[in-house]
Each structure stands twice: as structure tokens, then as C-alpha cells.
């Protein structure tokens, strides 16, 4: 192990993002940190993804397989990785040239998750705003169901081996589910700088309407997490379950299922009591209710 310049492996799962993939690959190859292994995996794309990858075959490890989903694709890439530190970059996102350099500077050799802020950009690459979610530690991340970890985050290989990678049954929150499982014994470091760009466009799964199953993933994930002996229970579980149910309710409401959404809010009160009325939960509910009512008003005026 080179403590000063550890090998970093970045994996990009690519599925029908040929319009953006070339720019994504360029952003990784332009890193000032030179000890980087880069793996790009075509997950059964039907567009020009493979042609884009072929341009970089000499500088990037390029793999194609039949469609198996983002989680399985990432797990495959990380399983192949030689790096001491691992990360991923979506095929439509970008890293700043010094991103990896700045993250590795905070690595001390212990099991770690190191991440920074990022910018939201539109489909044309125009910056919308900076996105730096407040982070007060791993415990608050679990109990408030807030994921501050975004573009370019790095984590120790040992965490991947211990946690077993992403849960391939999840579609809405496989990343957050991984962070709370892997993070039980990890050191979290937040770098208070923007390190990359998250692209928002019609194909972004993050902002897509959620099915019933996807909207309820937060609840199922937390129930499973607190079913393990090492994760604790009591008031901590109440706070976390209340936040997960509120998160679920907001996704249902945002997807047009008002009855189901308010049912989840009621369940949050039943399971969490006063914990359901945390400032974070109230802000979350207020924001989605405003958006829902505004949407209904626009529809009525149309």
C-alpha cells in the first residue's frame, strides 16, 4: 500500500448515455491525480455507448455485458478493481480535474468514506446551483434519512468487501442503503468544496416519478438495517423509521399518490411519535406539499 498515493479505482456504469459518456470519460482521464484505474462498463446499451467507449479502449478498461442493472454492474466493476480506494461516476456526470487529488489528501489509511459537494447542471452542461448538503455525522445521516454523499465520493475497498456492495433489488436508494451499511465502522470525511457536476435531465433516475415499490424502499431498507444486532434500536430506531416513512410519503405524494403519501406520514407519527415532527421531516413534508399543490393548481388552470 502506498499511503501517500494509493491506487484509486473509478467505475462508470453506462446505459444508453452515449450523448454524455465521452465528456464523463474525459473528466476522469483529466485528473491531476495520476494513480487511477478507470473501468467503464456498458450495461447492455442500445445507443452509441459502445462506440464511444471504443475511442478510449487504450486508456480505459472497457467492458460490455447484457443488461443487468446499475447495482450489479457497479458490484462487478468494484469486484474487479485493484484500487485501495473505490468510487463511481455516473455516465452523465463530471469530475473536476483536481477532485480525486483533493479527496485522497484526506485519506489516512483507515476504513473511510470521503466526499465533497457538487454542482447541479442541466442537460447542456449549464450550472444550476451548488449542492452541499449539511453533514453532522453518520448517526444523523441514518436518523434523518439524509444522504450528503454525491458525485465523486471515494471509500475504502474494505468497506465494499464487508458490506457486500449495492443491493441489486433496490432502484431508488441503492447508494444510500450502501452508505448506511458500509458506514457502521467507517470514518466519514466531508470536504467542503464542490468537486464535480451532477447532470439533471429527463433521463435522470433521481428525479423520475417513483413507483410504489421504489417509494417504499426507504422503509424496507431501514427495517432491515435495524434488524441487525450491531445497528442499535430504541429512540434511534424511532427517529430513523419516522424519517424513512416521511421520505417515502414525499415520494408517493410527488408521484401523484396523495392518499398513500399521507398514509405514510400518519405511519411516521405512529411509529416515531414526536420524532416524526423533527425540523428536517417538517421541511421535507412542507416542500413536497407545496410542490404538489402548485402542480394541481397548474393542472386546473390548463
Structural class: alpha/beta
Give the strand tally. 9
The dominant shape is globular
What CATH architecture of the largest domain would you give? Alpha-Beta Complex
Strand content: 15-25%
Number of separate helices = 12
| Run of helices and strands | EHEHEHEEHEEHEHHEHHHHH
CATH top level of the largest domain is Alpha Beta
Give unreliable regions as ranges.
Answer: none
Whole-number total of structural domains: 2
CATH fold-level topology of the largest domain? Spore Coat Polysaccharide Biosynthesis Protein SpsA, Chain A
At the fourth level of CATH, the homologous superfamily of the largest domain is Spore Coat Polysaccharide Biosynthesis Protein SpsA, Chain A
Helix content: 40-55%
Query: What is the terminal-to-terminal distance?
Result: 63 Å
Computed Rg: 20 Å
Sheet with the most strands, sense and barrel status: 9 strands, mixed
Question: How do you describe this structure in short?
Answer:
The chain has 302 residues and is α/β, with parallel strands linked by helices. The protein has twelve helices and nine strands.
Characterize the structure shown.
By secondary structure, the protein is of the alpha/beta class. The chain folds into 2 domains: 200 residues, Spore Coat Polysaccharide Biosynthesis Protein SpsA, Chain A (Alpha-Beta Complex); 90 residues, no CATH class. It has 12 helices and 9 strands. Strands 1, 2, 3, 4, 5, 6, 7, 8 and 9 form a 9-stranded mixed beta sheet that branches.
